[in-house]
Amino acid sequence: MRKFEGIYSRSAVVIREGNKGINEEERSIGNIVATEDPTVVFDWARWEPIREILLMSGVELPESKQIPLLRNHSRWSDEDVVGSTRNLTVEGDILTGRNFISEVEANLWTKIREGHVTDTSVGYRTYSEHSIRLAPGEETNIDGKVYRNDYADGMDLIIRKKWKPMEDSVTPIGADQRSKMRSELNPSEDVLKKIELIEAGLAEQNKRLSDVTITIKERSEMKPTEKNAEDAVREERERVSEIEEWGKRFGNSIPKVDELISEARSSGISVLEFKERCWERMDKSKPVETPATDLDLTGKEMDDYSPLRMIQSIISGKREEAGIEREYDTAVREVLKVAPRKDSFFIHPKVFNRFAARILNQRTMKTSGSTTGAALVGVEHMEDGFIEYLRAASVLGEAGITILSGLKSDISLPVQTSEGGFAWGEEGDAGSASDMNFTNKTASPKFGRGQRKYTKTMMLQSAPSIELLVMKDLLGKARNGVETALLHGTGADNQPQGLANTSGVGSVNISSLTWNKIVEFETDIETADADISTMQWVTTPGIKGALKTTPIVDGYPMFIMNNGEVNGYPLKSTNNVSAHHLFFGAWEQLILCDWGMYEIMVNDKLAGSDAGNVEITIFVHVDAVTKYPLSFSIGSNAVA
Predict the structure, then answer these.
(1) Is there a domain that residue 522 lies in?
(2) For residue 86, pLDDT beyond 50
(3) What is the C-alpha to C-alpha distance for residues 548 and 560, in angstroms, rounded to an integer?
(4) Residue 502 and residue 506: Cα distance in Å, rounded?
(5) Distance CA 39, CA 266 (A)
(6) Could you tell me if 243 and 325 lie in one domain?
(7) Over the stretch 356-378, which tens digit does the pLDDT of each residue have?
(8) Which of 258, 281, 304 is the last residue of a domain?
(9) CA–CA separation, 46 vs 1, rounded Å?
(10) For residue 240, what is the enclosing H or E element?
(11) Which end of the chain is more exposed for a tag (fewer CB within 10 A), N or C?
């Protein structure tokens, strides 16, 4: 059984009468933080609801007698802190304190003063070695007092002989009936009736269960009367299981992932929200996983690896002439459970490194005119040469698309479908404001291919320049195919779903390419609150030329495109954009997912006019996800 090390929570209430009530000058109010009353909470160690008693004789208070006061147990930033709970003191069977509200929380203070906010919820740590669990019907004697689990609902009763308050939170609804802001210290008839109802039936306890580390949004959407405890336990197990699985899978790429997992377990956030928080921290500059094809090869084996030698062995029918290349292909097929083929082979992703580096070096020297070592692209840092080639040698790579490389299996990513709204209401009232909505988008390998033909005579030569030429052609074909799919993939027939076919992306009719239409792109994205300073344009060479020669105002020599920018944003062009299209947006929101599987097929059985030629095909396994469609707008119907 797993030992839970997170933080539990139960509700408390502020005090508003007498000398322990409201103090306007210091913006504070008395608070019953916790009591020894049996309270239903969720036992994270055993994944079930329990009844719990916190013994005041065992509370561990900080030396400062102070803990932070949060908003609904949110512990992600200092903005979640609304004040502090101070002067923690044990008074008989209750723990009291004073809630001091920050001056920047004027609205919250007003609601407390007016009596709209009465409940708080303490987050605390427990110790299994200092806990006594009583099954139904069992009893125990602690310091002369008998505790018996004689409740009819079948829940275990746990008595905490040692516990430690970690934080206090302002909440809309409480679970511990005596933990109130002091106006309810002397219970009214209504309060007593509530207590009787709680003790009377499991249905009411299930309702209270929703107060245990579940967020406001989830609480407002739940229908407790339609769920029993078994359903709640099952759903919670599924939530935590997904969180732990996702965190473990990408843990090497996410700093302090264990803290994120622990916080997500105890705070009750959804799986989608957890993924979004992981995404924000994830290091995407290198492979987020180690792909199944990245089998260990020594440095010498990597240097000796020759795709051309493997191609030649297929053409000659003597595959035994290929050593390390054939061995690697056999090993990868065993891992992937793919049947062996005589006409194709898998290539190690890092083999692309030396070819990609040489191609990029040539490109660097051509564009910069430099032949010094400082101008060359290094190879030692590359984790995947093909991906590095895409980053540096494709227009979308230069525009800043996000690349997730090294994936091992399908990946489910959070995709934002709308911005959050705003509404007024009572403290704790869910209100009518719309939440920032996310949905899951699953990326899975889509098989794309690019082909080139060469003479058989050429392919049987062993010159390094021939191998570089072939690899340059294949890399170029793969790059163009992937870039086209990212922009225009249909999402059907095993194609990635490109930006132009993604729901939610803005659109502008540019049949007339005017300055007003250009401004409309920016307005379109800003209206959706999706504008980002790094936005860029991507279009065809033809539209780029038209923008360079179209004046902003007729008769004045000031053109729409000037110094490589349009309306203050950089513009890039590529033939991989379909005719008449102009893209604008924040390209980091477009994600290329790559599984590091590259296969080369050799067909030397061509007939007719192609007899004597060899057709070489490269297969790549990628997919595309547009994480935030509202951050893009696409123009179509351009005349240029």
Answers:
(1) no
(2) yes
(3) 6
(4) 10
(5) 18
(6) no
(7) 666 655 544 343 443 333 333 33
(8) 281
(9) 8
(10) helix 229-249
(11) N
Question: 139 with 245, same domain?
Answer: no
Q: What is the DSSP string of 375-416?
A: GSPPSTT-S-HHHHHHHHHSHHHHHT-EEE-S--S-EEEEEE
Separation CA 571–CA 565 (nearest Å):
6
Is there a contact between 405 and 412 (Cβ–Cβ < 8 Å)? no
Residue 559 forms part of a structural domain: no
Full-model pTM: 0.58
Indicate the DSSP class of residue 162: S
Closest CA to 560 of 596, 513, 627: 513
Token match 């009232």: residue? 429
Residue 469 domain boundaries: 286-418+434-504+588-629
From first CA to last CA, the distance across the chain in angstroms is 67
Final residue of a structural domain among 164, 187, 210: 187
- Considering the domain architecture, whether residues 109 and 133 belong to the same structural domain is answered as yes
Same domain, 179 and 318: no
**pLDDT tens-digit series, residues 141-179:** 998 899 999 888 888 899 999 999 988 888 765 544 444
Residue type, 496: P
Residue 201 contacts by C-beta under 8 Å, 6 or more apart in sequence?
153
Residue pair 166/124 in contact (Cβ under 8 Å)? The answer is: yes
Alpha helices in 293-372 (DSSP H): 299-304, 307-316, 324-336, 352-368
- The answer to whether residue 224 sits within a structural domain is no
**Quick check: 36 and 176 in contact, CB under 8 A?**
no
The upper half-sphere exposure of residue 255, i.e. CA atoms within 13 Å in the direction of its Cβ, equals: 4
